[in-house]
Design brief:
The chain is about 45% helix and about 20% strand. It is an alpha/beta fold. Strand 7 (about 210-220) and strand 8 (about 220-230) form a beta hairpin. Helix 1 (about 10-25) packs across helix 9 and helix 2 (about 35-45) crosses helix 5.
């Protein structure tokens, strides 16, 4: 595993347990925008203070996010909100995107990874991976993808409905790709050991994306994926988390 020899499956499994536990302490730093969306919209001159107050009052009962609320009230268009979110987060945005661009699964993520991480790759080169995401920007997932793919990730904001379409269409032209959703660190380590025993030689990379640890195992060119949930060794909480992940 990763160029090291092990005397038995048990030794591989013990080392995998250590790595998965260590990964939980190496979470990818998150990013907090300097300004709230309302402040950005006021600064851009596309919203009045009165309209902002109206939207904030309406949010208390609707539960909508501010951008959605402003669109519902008819104060702003979808693209104006998207442009403000882009400025708030310091990344580019795509007003429109062709869903055909994701059907060959650039980046070779699985449907589980796309859903759990909130990112959809739509173009790739040897050095870069271009991904679409909706607000709030999943910075930890983007950082983990860079670490696991060893490529620069270029994020682009898209509207929520466009993101839902892309996530649904991702990989449509290929056989279904699935990740292994394991119950805890012990099961994750056992799966890693099993892959190593079957292939004889594997490379393993892992990164923590709160609340789970994302593991990619390259077994002679065939990539297997594990998503290790929080609450190690607490079966009830794991089942609830996995059920919630599956619903999204």
């Amino acid at each position: 595993m990763d160029g090291d020899w092990f005397c038995s499956n048990a030794c591989v499994e013990a080392d995998a347990v250590r790595r998965l536990r260590d990964a939980r302490g190496r979470g990818v730093p998150t990013h907090t925008p300097a300004l709230r969306l309302g402040a950005v919209l006021l600064q851009q001159g596309v919203l009045s203070p009165g309209q902002l107050r109206e939207a904030l009052d309406a949010q208390r009962t609707s539960g909508l996010r501010l951008g959605e609320q402003l669109q519902t009230l008819g104060h702003l268009t979808r693209e104006v909100v998207l442009r403000a979110l882009s400025a708030q987060n310091g990344i580019s945005y795509l007003a429109t995107i062709d869903s055909a661009s994701v059907r060959t699964a650039p980046g070779r993520l699985t449907s589980d990874e796309v859903r759990a991480l909130g990112i959809v790759p739509f173009r790739e080169t040897q050095e870069e991976l271009f991904i679409a995401c909706a607000a709030p920007v999943p910075y930890s997932a983007i950082g983990a993808l860079e670490a696991l793919s060893d490529r620069k990730v270029q994020p682009f904001l898209v509207a929520d409905d466009d993101f839902a379409t892309l996530a649904r269409e991702y990989g449509a032209a290929l056989p279904a790709l699935r990740a292994n959703l394991v119950r805890d660190i012990s099961e994750g380590a056992s799966r890693i050991a099993a892959f190593a025993a079957e292939a004889g030689d594997v490379n393993v990379t892992e990164a923590h994306v709160d609340p789970f640890t994302w593991v990619r195992i390259d077994a002679n060119g065939r990539v297997n994926t594990l998503l290790v949930p929080p609450y190690p060794d607490e079966t009830k909480e794991n089942e609830e988390w996995l059920a919630g992940t599956t619903r999204h």
